[in-house]
Structures are given as C-alpha cells and as structure tokens.
Specification:
By secondary structure, the chain is of the alpha/beta class. It folds into 2 domains: 179 residues, Rossmann fold, CATH 3.40.50.2000; 176 residues, Rossmann fold (3-Layer(aba) Sandwich). It is 45% helix and 15% strand. The protein is built from 14 helices and 13 strands. The longest helix has 19 residues. Pathway: Cell wall biogenesis; peptidoglycan biosynthesis. Belongs to the glycosyltransferase 28 family. MurG subfamily.
Length: 364
C-alpha cells in the first residue's frame, strides 16, 4: 500500500501527518509514504528529518473565507493539481490523507480526478477551506472536536508524537524536574507561547513571577528563541524561576509541570488534554477566533481555564491560576478531567480510517 500525505505549510498540518505516517509504518513497515509539500513550507525540513519522501508542488495560497478572490483559485490551481496527479500516478497511491493547508486542496482534487480514496483530517474546531471542500469528496472525515460541523465527521482527536501520546507524567516527573533543575516537590507552572513565544504572556509572567515564587510556585518559562531572556534574581530559598529560549523536549516539560499557561493552538490543546495537563488558555486575539473554539471543549469538561488576551494580567493569574497550583485536590481533578477529554490513540484510529477508505474503494 502507498499513502500520500497532503498537509504542508505549518507544523499544525505537518506534525499530525507525520504522526499518521509513523503509525502506518508501525502497523506495516513496508507501507509506502510520500508527503506533498511546497518549497516554502516547514515540510522541507521536517519530512526528510523523519525519514519520509517529499514531493514538492507549486504553492497556491487559499483565502480563509469565501471572497471574490476565490473565483481565481481554480485557474491558479490547474498547474498544481496536475503536479499532484503526477505524484499520485508515479507512486501508485492507494489513498490521499489530507490535513489542510496549501497542498491539501490540490491533493484532494487530484485524487478525485484519479479515483484515489481520500481521508480528511481537520485539527481545528473551525475547518479551513481546503478541508471543507475535501470533505465533500469522501465519507472518511476525522475531526479533533466532538461538535464539528464537517460532513461525515468522526471525532478521533489529533495524531500526536509517540513521546507525547505515550507519556506517563507521574512516572516521568522526578526525571523531568531534575533535567530542568527544578525542585522535585514544588507546584510547577509551565509557560510557553508556542515555538516563537508570545510577548503578552512573557510580559505578564515576568511581572507576576516573584509573587508566585513567594507563594511556593516554581516556573519554567519558554520565552521564544527570538525574545530576550528576562533578568532573574533567584533569591536563596525561593522556588526557582527558569526562563529558557526554547524547549526541545516538550514531553519532559509536560511531565515536570502541574499546570500550563499557553495559547490555544489545536496541537497544544490536543497534547495537553492527552497527557492530562490542566492549562490556562489564552487564545490568540487575531485570526478567525479558532483558538477559543479549540480550547472551549476541554475547558467545559473541567480540564482548563480560558481568558481573553486583553484580560490576561498579573492580577488574573494571582486570582485564578495560583489557587489551582496551590490546591492539590483541584489540580488532580482538573488533570483527570483533561485526560478524560483527551485522545491518545488518534493516530491508530486514523490508520484504521485509511484502511477503511482503501477497502471501500476496492469493494466498490
């Protein structure tokens, strides 16, 4: 069997695709896997690093919403659809699994023309244009939120890296805290605004850090590689405040933490829910509001808090986050609720869907 993955552009599209690739290979080491990408996407680095074949096709940016520009898309797509068709024919593709982004729509349209089965995965609560169109061509549609409006949607969650999906936070806590130089027994707040950091979160945390430390809370804070590290004066006997540019072992960071302050990207919400780490979510205030929609289900389930970016202040953290961190029973309950909501097996469920789609085509 050969599966073509269509999910380039951002890590939010590529990481779930690669998690599916890994799961397919675990089930059948002989399965062929090719990823579609464009020369400007992160896939040019991430896909080869993981050992998978990458085929580049021309990039055709899509409008996020129906606009007059949408009329020009079919013409601009013609060449890139043809390029995608050539990849499907050359690899003998049995299935196209799409994850949204620039390459998904040409992948879907090429597959439809050639009669290749399609599987769609939508990571966000508010689906993008490519997946809205792709979901019209298949009944094999996987989504990350239980109340998705996509046609034929099945709630499976988001395929995660194995280091996250198999993480036992309690078992790894001692090792993780030692790795970061944290105290083994103090309540721990993890802060990150994503791979590039978030200025708003950084500024607020730097102000509130001394008060949290005085209350017995230690802080591990990834500020982002391009942001300046705050000057910290850790007084003897005080819980540590550890700012770092970047965290390359998020599994250890999750294991070290009792709670997280973060944005609400789909992948972040899925990972924290899967490992049972409660969070205070601060949705990105720009875009189409999808980050708030991503976080709302787990917050409603009791596994987190949510606050608007404009309302995130040192006082809000003092009034809302500190009481959770210093209450072991409440931490335990929020962790349990997050874990009950989260899905660790999305990669395996998506593998089953790929095999279903292929079998349906062969039977049909």
């Amino acid at each position: 069997m050969h599966v073509v993955l269509a999910g380039g552009g951002t890590a939010g599209h590529i990481e779930p695709a690669l998690a599916l690739a890994d799961a397919l290979r675990r089930q059948d080491p002989a399965v062929g896997i090719t990823a579609l990408g464009t020369e400007r996407g992160l896939e040019t680095r991430l896909v080869p690093e993981r050992g998978y074949d990458l085929e580049l096709i021309p990039a055709v940016p899509l409008p996020r919403k129906p606009t007059p520009e949408l009329i020009t898309v079919p013409g601009r797509l013609r060449g890139t659809i043809k390029a995608a068709e050539q990849v499907l024919e050359r690899t003998g593709a049995d299935c196209v699994a799409g994850f949204g982004g620039y390459v998904a729509l040409p992948g879907y349209l090429a597959a439809k023309r050639l009669g290749v089965p399609i599987v769609v995965h939508e990571a966000n609560a508010r689906p993008g244009l490519a997946n809205k169109i792709g979901s019209r061509y298949t009944r094999f549609v996987a989504v990350s939120t239980p109340d998705s409006k996509l046609r034929h949607a099945r709630y499976v969650g988001i395929p995660l890296r194995r280091s996250i999906a198999t993480l036992d936070r309690a078992a790894a806590r001692t090792e993780a805290r030692a790795a970061f130089g944290l105290d083994a027994n103090l309540p721990t707040l993890l802060v990150t605004g994503g791979s590039q950091g978030a200025r708003r979160l950084n500024e607020v945390v730097q102000v509130i850090a001394p008060a949290l430390q005085r209350s017995g809370v230690q802080i591990l804070h990834a500020v982002g590689p391009k942001n300046e590290l705050p000057r910290v004066d850790n007084m003897p006997g005080m819980p540590p405040y550890l700012p770092v540019p970047y965290l390359d072992r998020m599994d250890l960071a999750y294991a070290a933490a009792d709670m997280m302050l973060c944005r609400a990207g789909a992948m972040t919400v899925a990972e924290l829910s899967a490992v049972g780490l409660p969070a205070a979510y601060v949705p990105l205030p720009i875009g189409n509001g999808e980050q708030r929609l991503n976080a709302q289900p787990v917050v409603k389930a009791g596994g987190g808090l949510i606050v608007d970016d404009a309302e995130l202040t040192p006082e809000w953290i003092q009034a809302n986050v500190l009481p959770v961190l210093t209450d072991p029973h409440r931490l335990y309950e929020m962790s349990r609720c997050a874990a009950e909501f989260g899905r660790r097996d999305a990669d395996e469920l998506l593998v089953k869907m790929v095999y279903e789609a292929v079998a349906a085509r062969r039977q049909g």
